[in-house]
Amino acid sequence: MSLAPWLDACPIVAILRGVQPEEVEAIASALIHEGLNIIEVPLNSPRPLESIRRLHSAFAERALVGAGTVTTEDEVAAIVRAGAKLMVTPHCDPDLVRAARARGLIACPGFMTPAEAFALLAAGADALKLFPAEAVSPAVVKALLAVLPRGTAILPVGGMSAETIPAWKAAGAAGFGVGSSLYAPGDSPAAVGAKARALRSALGLG
Fold first, then answer.
1. Residue 129 appears among annotated catalytic residues
2. Tens of pLDDT along 70-91?
3. For residue 81, what pLDDT is reported?
4. Contact at 8 Å (CB) between 161 and 181?
5. Is 85 a residue of the active site?
6. Catalytic residue among 85, 129, 169, 195
7. Which CATH number do you get for residue 27?
8. Catalytic residue among 40, 75, 85, 195, which?
């Protein structure tokens, strides 16, 4: 399993922090309708494993379902049982990357420094989450790509919106984790769909 084809189709990871299991399928359906097929449920959301189970059951063939804010190996095992195919962490932990890869998950761990990036790639990371991206600038992505192995996928997360994404894209980012500017607790599926269209437009995807 690879992250690349999903990013090629649409390089947005929809982060549904705070989503409720009872609404997650309707929200995901709106996202998928707009072409956003990578959906992450952070584990600090209400009953996140239930949301992941529902997404896997409803959209396993149409979406890459992931879990975010993963911080322990027990959580890695739990998200696999729930049906997640993607693990996202907020921090650099090569052991978590190895645990995820051993279970067949795509691993996109968080990093901030070159040392962390190289350590995570050595552990088998499929892509790297630059977090919190609002603490740096797009120039950081350009500089990192000059020294990291060719083809390394960097996904900035934090502060991503229709207004900020173009500069990160120009710097070479392979994808973008988008949270509050795409989904906030209480948003209707229609509202999320409208935000998704704005993001696609910012990426020149129509």
1. yes
2. 999 999 999 999 999 999 999 9
3. 98
4. yes
5. no
6. 129
7. 3.20.20.70
8. 40
